[in-house]
From TrEMBL, chain A:
GO terms under cellular component: plasma membrane
Entry keyword tRNA processing: no
UniProtKB keywords: Amino-acid transport, Cell membrane, Membrane, Transmembrane, Transmembrane helix, Transport
Name of the protein: Branched-chain amino acid transport system permease protein
Compartments where found: Cell membrane
TrEMBL record, chain B:
Key words, A-Z: Cell membrane, Membrane, Transmembrane, Transmembrane helix
CDD domains listed in its UniProt record: TM_PBP1_LivM_like
Organism: Enterovirga rhinocerotis
Superkingdom classification of source: Bacteria
Coiled coil: none
One example GO MF annotation: branched-chain amino acid transmembrane transporter activity
Protein topology in the membrane: Multi-pass membrane protein
The protein's name in its UniProt record: Amino acid/amide ABC transporter membrane protein 2 (HAAT family)
Compartment(s) where it occurs, according to its Swiss-Prot or TrEMBL record: Cell membrane
UniProt cross-references to Pfam families, sorted A to Z: BPD_transp_2
Gene Ontology CC terms, in alphabetical order: plasma membrane
Record-annotated membrane-spanning stretches: 20-38, 97-117, 124-147, 172-191, 221-241, 256-283, 304-323
TrEMBL record, chain C:
Gene3D superfamilies tied to this protein: P-loop containing nucleotide triphosphate hydrolases (3.40.50.300)
A GO cellular component entry from the record: plasma membrane
Pfam families per the UniProt record, alphabetical: ABC_tran, BCA_ABC_TP_C
Organism whose genome encodes this protein: Enterovirga rhinocerotis
Stated name of the protein: Amino acid/amide ABC transporter ATP-binding protein 1 (HAAT family)
Domain (ABC transporter) ranges: 10-259
GO MF terms, alphabetically ordered: ATP binding; ATP hydrolysis activity
Keyword terms of this UniProt record: ATP-binding, Nucleotide-binding, Transport
Amino acid sequence: MDALFLAEVMLAGIGSGALYALTGVAFVLIYKATRVVNLAIGEILMLGGYAFLGFAAGLGLPAIAALVLAVVTGGLLGWLVERSLIRPMLGESPISVFMVTIGLGSILVGLVQLGWGADPLRLPEFMPATPVFIGDAYLAPKVAVGFVAAAVVIAAFLALFRFSRSGVALKATAGDQGAAYSVGIDVPRVFSAAWILACATAAGAGVLVGAIGGISPTMGVFGLSVLVVVIIGGLDSIAGALVGGLLIGLVEALAGAFLGGEYKLVVTFTLLLLLLMVRPYGLFGTHEIERL
Amino acid sequence: MRIGTLKTSYAADEALFDTALQRGLLVALLVAAVVFPFVASPYWLFLACLCAINVASATGLNLLTGYTGLVSLGQAAFMSVGAYTVAVLEIRLGTPFALNLLIGAGLAAAIGILVGIPSLRVKGLYLAIATIAASVILHFLFSHWTLTGEARGLSMPPARLFGIAIDQPFSLYWLIMPVTMLMVLGAANLLRTRIGRAFIAVRDRDISAEVLGIPLLRTKLTSFAISSFYAGLAGGLWAYFFRVVTPESFPLDNSIFYLAAIIVGGMGTILGGILGAVFMTLVPELLKFGANWLTPIYPDALSALAPVRTIVFGALIVGFLIFEPRGLVEIWVRIRRFFHLWPFRT
Amino acid sequence: MRLAGRDPILEVERVELRFGGVKALSQVSFSVPEGSITAVIGPNGAGKTSLFNTISGFYRPQAGTIRFAGETLDGVAAPERAARGLARTFQNIALFRGMTVLDNIKLGRHAHMRTNLLDALVYWGRARREEMELRAEVEERIIDFLEIQHIRHAAVGTLAYGLQKRVELARALAMRPRILMLDEPVAGMNREETEDMARFILDVKEEWGTTILMVEHDMGMVMDISDHVVVLNFGQVIASGEPRAVQSDEAVIAAYLGAGDVGEIARRIRADAA
């Protein structure tokens, strides 16, 4: 086997894995803070891509402004969704809440189709086109930019959780909502903040994903891979999202290169099933002790 | 106003339809179901068949998700197992349709059990994702296997009874409607025995259920088996109804559709599964009527139909969960209570 | 009336249960004479509920044996233990909220019924017969006995606490118990409800001949109705015997009032740590 080819495939895999990890972190953030499994994360990501298109191509704004506005749109959407759909469901069964997010995903897909049609679209070019070489291995410049951007945002998140007051509030809320509330942490604000941050992140990731592969209303399937990522990592583990993201990125790239594109999903899901048999709570997830 | 139910035997108190009014309604419905195909247009017969198939599958999912508390996003995939089995048997062997349906349902049940095995250790969302994984794997299998026609899928001959082809909405109605009714009756029966009680016990408090003598794994697998049996049977009916089965016939969206149907109808009630499946099947048609009606005023109405359907589908799920979490069945219960108490008000 | 026999129906022998480094039960041994009312008492955290959960098969002990009716329960799963006649109630009521009182009670019989999936779907023959027999028995032997006719069709969630406890007892009785394990049957009840429950427990023993093992904090009731008392403290049996004898045992008094001897506590902690 050609070692250079293998290296290039793996590099591409790590590049897309970084985007999975980024979206995975957004997913885990919401789960940690609110215990909501947000199946609409893929659709929010898609909306980010379309918002960028709207601001950049529709309104003719410069790329950087469009990117910022797309991220802000994602944040606004997160705030709106938390306030109007998630908060009324407080205390309902987890199944109901996750169905609400499925419904939300469907609404977003419909809205995007209504506005931009069902066909795939390309985002205006805004990334450098100089090829990147790591050793001899070629890496598509967009993928490299995506990787760097994802790494920076994830690092910022990790620093935020570790060193800031809001990070502590988030951890406390994740541990025990009632207890956090009673020691004076503004739990509803933590909820809002988590949704705003996560959806803004997902929208930003959507711009990166869209810049690499184009956008379409079915782009939400990206969320399916993200779901695999967070399940493998463990729903409530940020480290798990990172490892899972890179792992799934690699596996998909290798499966795509050596077996064919249609094998990507089936390979990752088979891996997922096998892992669940051995570790039902993912690699890094918390196993909750059962009591009578 | 109803002042009491005066039963003189335990059997009367345990009956499915325990008042004269309910039994009267039931007879009226049965008569309507018999008369319907003679007065309805083929379009309405087509819709009735589609509703019935969806009711059958949703009822199966309701046993698993509504009663046993195990969320599955694999109902459509289990249907595809039934549909493909029926198609292959019909094309290759030409065996009688009743046998094909049973084999398809049995195979779906076997795969359901296999998928259900992780359910002892894997819970909630993790289990839902495991069922998605099973769907992805089945989809891959069907789209790559020569026996199932790979990506092109299979076209099959119609079911035959005494040499007569069952290929018109009228004759299909007589195949599909009775089978669905029997399936619903079976589910209702199941729920008044020890098996139904065990399902609910596992849903409500699975750990204490075990100490009370209910084997968890066996109960969960029974639930998976019966639910995917129903899906397989519904899928088989679907195959005879459309006579073309492709890998895209049963996408993940359909699994979400059935979950949405039982939510909108009312999880954990038989009536809820029926109401939800019928309602969710008819809404897109209703929207089509609306679009046709709007076209003279707003020429683009028909092209906006697909996205609007998607939006309405999502909005119905969200709306019901937030405003009427117990679904259509709760509205029905309120209406009934009103008449029970009439002329007084609650 | 049959005397409280000397034959033990339940024997717990040197049972050890640890959660990580925490010892919940250490070297616990006692036996329950058939036909008796045996009470397990002890301060909070003494390991009483852990003991019950171990006997039910919910926890697996690291060492020791439990024998029921002469047969070992080692490696026997919880549902099978229930089928053999170990019935119980729970400290925090564990009724199924999605079912009526009647269905909750009927559920207790699960392990003794034979209806299979096919019978159930057609509800004819065996399924129907079994259900009707069960209904009649539940009505005539249990619901009448516990005086809960008026709530049989009620949803359990709407019931008052005392009634919920009674429904739990009813469900345990439907399990055809050979031994009935009651985890704090009168906790949180007022005087009147407590007296009712004590009467039911005595009646179960007299009329059904069922052995009763209970965990209870209400000393008055324990001393009134039990034949045999086992005292647990820090996961160890510190006394057992007739109620009157246990009541005056010094170790028991120390456990409840706090030991005066600091050295003794220190020694015990060191022994635990070793």
